[in-house]
């Protein structure tokens, strides 16, 4: 990791963006952390607070608020968390179009000042917004990564521990597919201290965990009145860490498929190896018939959203 690395977070005034920036600064992952937000005064206040926190733990990270996209120039990584939340009466079509326009605007600004940056997308609907970022940026698709599977896997890990009552820190849960109702928890690839989950829990218990994982975000909204932010923010920071440290670690992320898993010109969540160049390898795990059917449905759900963008002339073939 370069001591002069620079990470910018667009949408840093929001909860998720703030957690991403805070995590990076607390770990000293990047020399410079830039907060980009429409509310510049709010970004300045958060930068001041984070700098003082960084001073308390004596990391070398310096946090600053961007006055314009010029402050993003030469960033190694740009994390995009900005987006429009779905409101009452808003259709799925409306949400997809609104956030696609936001992503287009951000990516257009970023590629002018940081054409070599790796983009980490957090905005929902995540897989579709990652696809939009790839199409609009013209970047190598391996340098545009969607945060999804790390978060979904973390939620599944929590629910496994909640059900077992032991094994904290030893649970490994794998979730692929799109970030939403059609995610695919891979029970065969989920373990506790290397022991298959199916050896520890009943079918009924595992089915309950799967459902809780799929609805984990919605449950938090019911309790908090807002979307989750600690876990999504930390998950995005883990991706940034893997890139900056060139760790070559494997995580499930939303990535562009070009023949892998039998699909082309689509984004979906699969295990990837992350390093300084972004997605350096896509790992193709074997799927049984049930897992394959679930994955196919997940891909179709993203294809359906992309059709909305094409129907509205936002994307042209």
Strand order of the largest sheet: 3-2-1-4-5-6
N→C terminal distance:
39 Å
Q: What count of helical segments does DSSP give? A: 9
H-E string: EHEHEEHEHEHEEEHHHEEEH
Largest sheet: 6 strands, parallel
Give the overall shape.
globular
Overall pLDDT confidence? 95
Describe the fold and architecture.
By secondary structure, the chain is of the alpha/beta class. The protein has nine helices and twelve strands. It has helices at 15-27, 40-57, 92-113, 126-137, 149-164, 203-214, 216-224, 230-244, 289-311; strands at residues 6-10, 32-36, 62-65, 77-80, 118-121, 144-146, 171-176, 184-192, 195-196, 249-258, 264-275, 278-282. The protein has a six-stranded parallel sheet with strand order 3-2-1-4-5-6, with helices on both faces. Strand 5, helix 4 and strand 6 form a beta-alpha-beta unit. Helix 1 packs across helix 8, helix 3 (92-113) runs parallel beside helix 4 (126-137) and helix 5 crosses helix 8 (230-244).
Summarize the structure.
The protein is an alpha/beta fold and 317 residues long. It is built from nine helices and twelve strands.
Secondary-structure blueprint of this entry?
Layout: E1 6-10, H1 15-27, E2 32-36, H2 40-57, E3 62-65, E4 77-80, H3 92-113, E5 118-121, H4 126-137, E6 144-146, H5 149-164, E7 171-176, E8 184-192, E9 195-196, H6 203-214, H7 216-224, H8 230-244, E10 249-258, E11 264-275, E12 278-282, H9 289-311
Parallel strand pairs: 1-2, 1-4, 2-3, 4-5, 5-6
Antiparallel strand pairs: 7-8, 8-9, 10-11, 11-12
């Amino acid at each position: 990791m370069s001591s002069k690395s620079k990470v910018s977070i667009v949408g840093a005034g929001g909860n998720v963006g703030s957690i991403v920036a805070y995590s990076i600064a607390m770990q000293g992952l990047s020399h410079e952390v830039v907060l980009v937000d429409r509310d510049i005064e709010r970004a300045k206040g958060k930068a001041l607070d984070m700098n003082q926190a960084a001073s308390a733990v004596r990391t070398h990270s310096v946090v600053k608020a961007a006055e314009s996209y010029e402050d993003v120039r030469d960033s190694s990584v740009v994390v995009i968390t900005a987006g429009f939340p779905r409101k009452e009466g808003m259709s799925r079509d409306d949400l997809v179009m609104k956030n696609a326009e936001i992503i287009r605007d951000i990516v257009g600004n970023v590629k002018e000042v940081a054409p070599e940056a790796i983009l980490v997308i957090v905005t929902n609907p995540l897989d579709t917004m990652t696809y939009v970022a790839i199409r609009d940026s013209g970047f190598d698709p391996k340098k545009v990564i969607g945060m999804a599977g790390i978060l979904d896997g973390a939620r599944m890990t929590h629910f496994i521990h909640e059900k077992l009552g032991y094994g904290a820190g030893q649970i490994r849960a794998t979730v692929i597919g799109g970030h939403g109702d059609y995610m695919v928890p891979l029970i065969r690839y989920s373990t506790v201290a290397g022991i298959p989950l199916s050896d520890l829990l009943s079918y009924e218990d595992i089915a309950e965990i799967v459902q809780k994982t799929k609805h984990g975000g919605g449950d938090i909204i019911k309790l908090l009145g807002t979307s989750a932010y600690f876990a999504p923010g930390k998950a995005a920071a883990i991706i940034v860490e893997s890139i900056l440290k060139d760790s070559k670690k494997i995580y499930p992320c939303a990535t562009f498929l070009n023949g892998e898993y039998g699909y082309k010109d689509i984004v979906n969540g699969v295990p990837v190896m992350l390093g300084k160049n972004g997605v350096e390898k896509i790992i193709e795990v074997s799927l049984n018939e049930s897992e394959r059917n679930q994955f196919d449905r997940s891909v179709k759900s993203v294809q359906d959203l992309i059709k909305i963008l094409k129907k509205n002339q936002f994307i042209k073939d």
